[in-house]
Amino acid sequence: MILPLLAAVAIVGGTVHTGRGPAQEGATVLIEANRIAAVGRDVRIPASAERIDATGLVVTPGLVEPHARLGVAEIGRNVPSSVEATAGRDYDPVRAALRVFDSFDIHSPTIPVARGGGITSALVVPQGGVISGQSIWVDLIEDRPVRKRALALHVSLLGDGRGPGGRSRAFLVLREAFEDARLYRANRGPYIARKLRPLSVSAKDLDALERTLEGELRVAIEVDHASDIQGALRLIREHRLDAVLVGAREGWLVASEIASAEVPVLIDPLANLPSSYQALQSRRDNASLLHEAGVQVGFTTRADPHLAHRLRFAAGNAVAEGLPYDAAIAAITRVPAAIFGVADAGSLRVGSLANVVIWNGDPLEVTSWPLHMWIRGVPIPLRSRQDLLTERYR
Amino acid sequence: MPEGPTLLLRGGSLLTAAGPSLLDADLLVVGGEIREVGPGLVAPPGAALVELEGRWVTPGLIDAHSHIGVYPLPFVPPHRDANEATSPFTPEVRAVDSFWPQDPALRYAVAGGVTAIHVLPGSANLVGGQGVTLRTVRRLSADAMRFPGAPVTMKMACGENPKTVYGKQRKSAPSTRMGEVALLRQKLAEAQNYKPGDGAIDYAKQALAGVVSGEILIENHCYRADEMLLRLQLFREFGVTPRAFHHAVEAYKIRDALAEAGVGVATWADWWGRKVELLDAVPAAIALLDEAGVRVAVHSDSPDDIQRLNQEAAKALAAGRRAGLEVTREQAIRWITANPAWLVGIGEQVGTLEPGKRADLVVWSGDPFSVYTRAQLVFVDGILIYDRADPARFPPSDFELGQRVAP
Question: How far is CA B277 from the centre of its chain?
C-alpha cells in the first residue's frame, strides 16, 4: 500500500489534552507520517517540520463517537430508503451476521458536520431488532475509512415497540440465541450433518454469536432501565461476554453492580428526562455518579446522525453536573477507543494514529470551535455543506 | 401592574437585553415589577436583599415554541394531545384545553431559567389551533398559568407534515404543497366573510376571522424559503402579515424580505437534516437574520433543549462569529428573551431588564453563555419560584412523587 507523503507537523505552544490526565500547558505535539511522534515540553522539532503556533489554543485527540449512525442514516423522517443497517420491513429480531460494513458511506453529508464538532472517529452501529448486527470502526476520512469491519455485536434491550412484554421477549430471544450458539459450538459436526435439534437462529448468525462466546467480538448492549441493566449483567456473566452497556439512563441506580461486574458504559449525559417508562429515573448527574462508583464511562449522542457534533457539549454539561473535567475529556476520546480495543485512537501519545484537533478555546465549551483537524496525519478541511450554504447566502 | 414583592438584587452583572451590559450594577424590584436598574441603588425599607456577588442576571428566558403539557413526559400515546389530526383545519381547538399542568418537563424548563412558554398545537394541520402563553409555575390548570394579557395565537403549518398526515395516508387533501396553499386560501376567504348570525356560532370560522382581521397572531411552522415567500404572498392577499415563521430553517435565504415585512423567526441553533425540508439549516442562520434586522428567537420545540436555551443561544453566537459576523452577547441574549417575547406578543411586559417590566429574572452561577453555568435563582413577578440550592421549592409534579429522582 502506498502512503501519501506527509510533511511532519509540529503543533507548538498549545494547551494539550492527551486523553489521559490533566492538560499540559505549552506542550508540543509532533505528527510524523500518520502517527504521533512525540508529545511534551521538550520535544526536538525536526527542521523540516511545518510549525503551527497553537499559543492560546487547545489541542486534543480527535473525538470519538462510539454509538454513531454516521454514513448509514440520512433522513429518518419519511425517507426510509436513506436509512441503512436497520431492522427494515422484514423485521427479524436476530440478525447477528448483518454488517454495517456493507452499507457504510463515507460521503454522507452528515460526516463533515460531525467533523465540525471535532469528531474524527466513530463506531457506526446497526439498529433494530434484539440482535442488530455488527458495527464498524471508522476514521472520518475518504481514504479507506473503515479500520475494523466487525468491531462489536449490537444488542438492544429497549423493547421492540411491538406491544407489551417487549423486553422480556428480548431476554428470551437472547437466552435462546446464546444457548443455541453454545450448543452449536460444541456440536458443529452434528449441526452440519443435521443431527442436532433445530436451532433458533441461522448458521451465519450462529457463527457471529460464537465469536462473542470466544471473546473475539465484544457485545454492546443498549439498555436504559435499571432492572434490565441487572438482567444484562446476568447475561454477560452467564456467557462470559466481553460487554459494554449503551444508554444506561438509570445506571446510577445500580452503579455499584455495574462497577463490580467491570462492565464499561457509554451514556448520553444530556439524557436526563423521564421520557419513557424505561427511563423514569433518568437524572442529570448520571455520568458523575457512575464515575464515582468506579464505572468506566464514555459518552455518546446515541445514534443521532445529525447531532453527533453535540458530543462535546454533552461532555461539558456532565462537568457542570459534577464530573471531573479530565474524565469528561477522556469520555469522548480515550475511553471509548479503549473500550473497543482500538488502542491507537483517542489519545495523543507516541505511536497513536495522528487524529488531532486544534480548538480556539475549551473544546467542551459551547462558544468554542475547532480550527484545524488531522486524521491519520492528513489535514482535513473543516468545511461542510452548511458552510457552503452560508457562503452562498452570506 | 402585579402586586408583588419588593427586593434589591445587588452587585451583579446585568445582561439587560436592552442595551449594553451593566457591570457591578443593582436591580430594584418594587411590587413585582422592575423599578430601577443601575449602580448604587438603595433598598427601600422592608425590601428583601439578594447579594449577587458579581453573578450575571438576565431576563427570564422565553421559549417561543414549546409543546410542554401537550406532548408531556413520558412520551406515550395517552399523552399525545397536540395534534387534532382529524381535519387539516382545526382553528377552533386550543392548546390550553390539552395542556397537562403536571407535565414533569415543566420543572426542568424552570431549572433552565425559563419563565414563559408559548405552547402550540402540533403541525399536522394547515391550521392546527390556538396557542397559549403560560408562565412556568406549578398550578392545577393551564388557565391559572396564563401569562396575563398574552394575545391568542394561531398555529399554522406548511410543507411536509400536513401533506404527509393527510394525503396518501388518509386519502384526503392536502397531499401536495400546492394542495396546502389552495386549501388555505379557500378557508381564509370563507372566514373573511364570516359574520356571526342568528344561528349557532361557528367557532372555527370565528377563529379564522380573527386571524384575517389581525387580532390573532399567526405563528406559522414553515421550513423552506420558497414556501415562506408563498405564505407571505397568500397572507398579503388577505391584508395580514404573520407574526413569525417557526422552525424556518431557510429564513436566512430570504432575510431581507422577512425584515422588510416585519416578520419574526423562531428557530433552532443547530438542528438539521432529519427531514428533507430541514436539510438546508445552517448554524449561522440566527446571526445572519439578526444582522439583517429580523427579530429572531432561539426556540426549543423540545423538552430537552428548553433546559439549555442559554447554551443554544451561545452556539448560535459562536456559529455567527465563526462565519465572520460581528455578533455580541448583547444581541444573543435577545434571542431568548426580548425577541421571543415580541414574537408571542408579550414584549411590552417582559423580555428585558428595564423599568416597568415584570420582574421575571434569572440569576446565573456564571456566564450565561457557558456550558458550565446553571440558573441558580428564577423569579416570576419578583417571586422566587426556583432555587438550585433548594430544588424542592419548585414542586415536582404529582407524577414524580415517590420516584427516586424527585427532589
Answer: 22
β-partners of residue A9 are A31, A50
Distance of CA A227 to the CA centre of its chain: 24
Radius of gyration, CA atoms only, chain B: 21
In contact, A59 and A12? CB cutoff 8 Å: no
Q: Which sign does the torsion angle of CA A208, A212, A214, A218 carry?
A: positive
Sign of CA dihedral A299, A301, A303, A305: negative
Q: Which position has the grid cell 482500538? A: A342
* B:303-322 residues touching chain A, CB 8 A cutoff: 303-304, 307-308, 311, 314-315, 317-319, 322
Task: Show residues of chain A in contact with B159, CB under 8 Å.
Answer: none
Which of B268, B278, B251 minimizes the C-alpha distance to A75? B278
**Are the beta carbons of A273 and B315 separated by less than 8 Å?**
no
- Alpha-carbon distance B145 to nearest alpha carbon in chain A (angstroms): 22
Q: Chain B: nearest CA to A233, how far in angstroms?
A: 22
C-beta atoms of B372 and A320 within 8 A: yes
Residue A52 CB neighbour total at 10 angstroms:
18
Cell 445582561 locates to B15
Residue in A77, A272, A366 closest to B311 by CB: A366
The answer to whether the CB of A133 falls within 8 A of the CB of A85 is yes
Q: Which residues of A touch B104 (CB under 8 A)?
A: 273-274
ipTM above 0.90, yes or no: yes
What DSSP string describes A165-192?
THHHHHHHHHHHHHHHHHHHHHTHHHHH
What is the DSSP-derived secondary structure letter of residue B7? Answer: E
Alpha-carbon distance of B189 to A287, in angstroms, equals 56
Provide the chain B residues 109-168 that lie in CB contact (below 8 A) with chain A: 160, 164
What residue ranges of chain B have pLDDT lower than 50?
1-2
| For A76, nearest residue in chain B (alpha carbons) | B274
The structure's pTM equals 0.97
pLDDT digits (tens, 9 = 90+) for A249-288: 999 999 999 999 999 999 999 999 999 999 999 999 999 9
8 Å CB contact of B74 and A280: yes
**B399 bridge partner residues:** none
A253 vs B contacts (CB less than 8 Å): 404
Helix ranges restricted to H, B194-273: 203-212, 225-237, 255-261
